[in-house]
Amino acid sequence: xxxxxxxxxxxxxxxxxxxxxxxxxxxxxxxxxxxxxxxxxxxxxxxxxxxxxxxxxxxxxxxxxxxxxxxxxxxxxxxxxxxxxxxxxxxxxxxxxxxxxxxxxxxxxxxxxxxxxxxxxxxxxxxxxxxxxxxxxxxxxxxxxxxxxxxxxxxxxxxxxxxxxxxxxxxxxxxxxxxxxxxxxxxxxxxxxxxxxxxxxxxxxxxxxxxxxxxxxxxxxxxxxxxxxxxxxxxxxxxxxxxxxxxxxxxxxxxxxxxxxxxxxxxxxxxxxxxxxxxxxxxxxxxxxxxxxxxxxxxxxxxxxxxxxxxxxxxxxxxxxxxxxxxxxxxxxxxxxxxxxxxxxxxxxxxxxxxxxxxxxxxxxxxxxxxxxxxxxxxxxxxxxxxxxxxxxxxxxxxxxxxxxxxxxxxxxxxxxxxxxxxxxxxxxxxx
Amino acid sequence: xxxxxxxxxxxxxxxxxxxxxxxxxxxxxxxxxxxxxxxxxxxxxxxxxxxxxxxxxxxxxxxxxxxxxxxxxxxxxxxxxxxxxxxxxxxxxxxxxxxxxxxxxxxxxxxxxxxxxxxxxxxxxxxxxxxxxxxxxxxxxxxxxxxxxxxxxxxxxxxxxxxxxxxxxxxxxxxxxxxxxxxxxxxxxxxxxxxxxxxxxxxxxxxxxxxxxxxxxxxxxxxxxxxxxxxxxxxxxxxxxxxxxxxxxxxxxxxxxxxxxxxxxxxxxxxxxxxxxxxxxxxxxxxxxxxxxxxxxxxxxxxxxxxxxxxxxxxxxxxxxxxxxxxxxxxxxxxxxxxxxxxxxxxxxxxxxxxxxxxxxxxxxxxxxxxxxxxxxxxxxxxxxxxxxxxxxxxxxxxxxxxxxxxxxxxxxxxxxxxxxxxxxxxxxxxx
Lengths: 432, 432
Fold this sequence. Notes:
2 copies of one chain form a homodimer. By secondary structure, the first copy, chain A, is α/β, with parallel strands linked by helices. The first copy, chain A, folds into 3 domains: about 5-135 and about 305-325, 3-Layer(aba) Sandwich (Rossmann fold), CATH 3.40.50; about 140-305, Dihydrodipicolinate Reductase, domain 2 (2-Layer Sandwich), CATH 3.30.360; about 345-430, ACT domain (Alpha-Beta Plaits, 2-Layer Sandwich). Chain A is about 35% helix and about 30% strand. Chain A has helices at about 15-25, 30-35, 70, 90-100, 110-125, 140-145, 165-175, 180-190, 195-200, 205-215, 235-245, 305-325, 365-375, 405-415, and strands at about 5-10, 40-45, 65, 75-80, 100-105, 130, 155-160, 225-230, 245-260, 260-270, 285-290, 295-300, 340, 350-360, 380-390, 395-400, 405, 420-430. In chain A, the strands form 3 sheets. The first copy, chain A, has a 6-stranded parallel beta sheet, sandwiched between helices. A 6-stranded mixed beta sheet of chain A has the order 8-10-9-7-11-12. In chain A, strands 14, 15, 16, 17 and 18 form a 5-stranded antiparallel beta sheet that branches. In chain A, β9 and β10 form a beta hairpin. In chain A, α5 (about 110-125) packs parallel to α10 (about 205-215). Chain A is globular. The two termini of chain A are about 45 Å apart. Residues about 330-335 of chain A have low confidence and may be disordered. At the A-B interface, α2, α5, α6, α10 and α11 of A face α2, α5, α6, α10 and α11 of B.
């Protein structure tokens, strides 16, 4: 391992995502460098307006408004592009790769339209071009398609990859809101733009599906190959009728490969209520991949926003930085490097479910409640069930507010000793 | 790229998973070699009983009962271990790594108990030790924890990683079966072993959780650090009461890191019915990771079986084989290499949902049905809704059996031209 290697990063764009990446590289440089095995340094940050106030504050000597200060700096081995849009981003990516720099981008539009050419250029220059953040935010679907799932022939991708439309459809379904109102709410929350065309007409999802389908099928699928139907014609009734028929309505991005032919489309569709995709709500995304060996694998997570997108960008960056350091060696492997204390179950803080078989007579619950109260265990609910007059027994089900395991176990021993308690049937924890 | 490089694989074990791996390496050698960039050859296969009949039939000259024929063969660069159990598997892994061979294993027990030592040995020998198949079958959670999610500090893992117990609990919940009967069913289906202790008492899940927690927290978490509670005390009533309280019961494997202290446990717990984990049914597995940047990311897929486990093993094998070929170059990147036809949406075969605003009078449905029938579009259901006597209108919702898009669009044009049809409100596809 080349121990004096330092990896210099040029960051292009300091918006929502760029700010998150800068924060990670500046604020957590030590943690990240440790994971990589070499120091990582943020050397330059390209912005449009030098004087715009920003959080986090990036030292002003890192800031530049001239892209060539990154693209032409031989010390910068790795360029992160989070500007978005087609131009000038595509030009920057092209120039960075041409200059032999590794590139990480979050740019779905550029990758959907120019991905094959840029990847060919990267291969020719023997550098990496990674773009995990271009689809699905914090969901690592791009890398999984490129690597982990590679043993499979993939048959299909079915996905919810536009958070804006999914938020709108979720509101329409749950609050019986009409489309215009749900759109306005999405705009008020910053989930939809003033001109929402790109999202609600399916362009954004088509870019992302083009990327996923190209990777999944090792083929060229462009946004122009994808049929699109927007969500603006949906009305409250559609959700009502769909529900009655046993379906949710979701805007799906689907690509299938069958008999050597690819079918790719983005449209609102009816999805059976018990399907996992029907349960993807709000700004969450999900991608379901169907492979010859793995069967159906579903990935679910936040599809956009500063944190999730930064997770993907910085993940790619670490991946490349590790390879740069590894040279002919394999990448460093996960090794224990923390001596965390391992807690006893006694220290668990949880809610509890307790089922008791008791003698069916007055005052039983009071005795049990007193013991729990003495142990500082607060009762959340009580059900009295299944009275059995012949045996004079009943069942009591108690749920608690958060309590300490050791206290609950101690109280349970006392409860079990009560003459009126025939048997402690079960103690379960409630995971919320 | 060293074009004359050939990668020789030694496979140890030819059971359910080993058979799947052999089938992939023998039957799909060309496809896999293409993905790797170099020929991959299955050179030797270790079995216990040479004469046991097997599917697929592995050429008899590849079969050996002597492990040293793999461990001591200098031509074999990569050993795949799918024997299972602690010994002799642990010894084989140790010897393979000591001999400078890369290793892929599906062995959760060995990785949980001896992972840190084996990983240290691999690092010392500058070889890879990958173990994606040890947890979650076809779900790529191990690699994602080691790589893609590395930008995050992880707070928690909550998972369903034992398919046997999840199958039993799903049966108990949905069929109100009692534990013994559900266990017997699981055994009849081959999901549970004759002695089911390892699964139902949580040992299997504890091995897997030890692996996940060690990776997630960069710490040493052993199976002995994990609290276990089995599922055998659960009764039909518990599911009934839980449901009434708004919960499912799932056997969860959980590890959390808080204030420098790890809490790890496997137990049946109550999970809110609207949580994704409550919806993981049958032999499926799911892992939810909560990270500082990515938020909650959930992975869902088949946790065991020949296909899913082979997907993970062969995925690891491709990963290593690519690196072996790549030397100082970056790994080959996904490039289009297929010229699949891209289908028009006209060729889509789907079920459809059609909503029409019509004049509310007799014979309307007959006219519409005739047009659909003429187009070979078979009706699955009809709802007549929202009669409006003032305007003399009603809504008709029709769902179809699978039909061709072009036929549906053509029929819809004819339907829209009917005098009795005021407006075609929506046409949606049904995705099942």
